[in-house]
Design goal:
164 residues; alpha/beta; 5 strands; Rossmann fold; 6 helices; globular; five-stranded parallel sheet
Length: 164
């Protein structure tokens, strides 16, 4: 069974993320969405809320692709999370050259820790390259419309959170 891990904070999950999830699911038998517990980033949504949003979005994607897609919170090293979930592959999405520079360093470190886990990069769809969770949250906080950047459920959650 080919198992891949797609890690991130997903605060919140965007249409860019779901594009990568859909395309990664076509390559593996099981796709684990690793939801990072990153207290330093000060997430807008709790871990439980982020996992629930991912599960809601991935249920339909799993049905569409026929691939098992599950959410898995983690706070340890990425390579250790890969071991925990039985992943042989780490999936990373790239939007721009700046992403590549960071990811290049991460791959080197992960390979030094365990060279049996391969990293695969998927380029963001051209329509989704500008989408970043950080920017989506900022637009939502300032009262802007983010419906073209996030799934409907996430848009509703952003509106509820930012209108308080």
């Amino acid at each position: 069974m080919r198992v891949a891990l797609y890690p991130g904070t997903f605060d919140p999950i965007t249409l860019g993320h779901t594009d990568i999830i859909r395309r990664a699911a076509a390559l593996v038998d099981k796709l684990v969405i690793g939801v990072a517990i990153n207290r330093d980033k000060g997430p807008m949504f709790s871990l439980e809320e982020r996992v629930a949003m991912i599960e809601a979005e991935c249920e339909q994607l799993s049905d569409e692709t026929g691939t098992q897609i599950v959410a898995h919170p983690f706070e340890n090293l990425l390579i250790d999370c890969a071991h925990d979930v039985g992943a042989q592959i780490i999936v990373r999405g790239l939007r721009a050259v700046a992403d590549f520079e960071y990811e290049f360093q991460m791959v080197g470190m992960n390979r030094a820790l365990d060279d049996s886990v391969e990293t695969v990069f998927l380029m963001a769809d051209a329509k989704r390259q500008a989408i970043a969770s950080k920017l989506v949250k900022e637009i939502a906080r300032l009262g802007g419309d983010v419906s073209k950047f996030v799934p409907e459920l996430v848009n509703e959650a952003l509106i509820a959170r930012t209108r308080k």
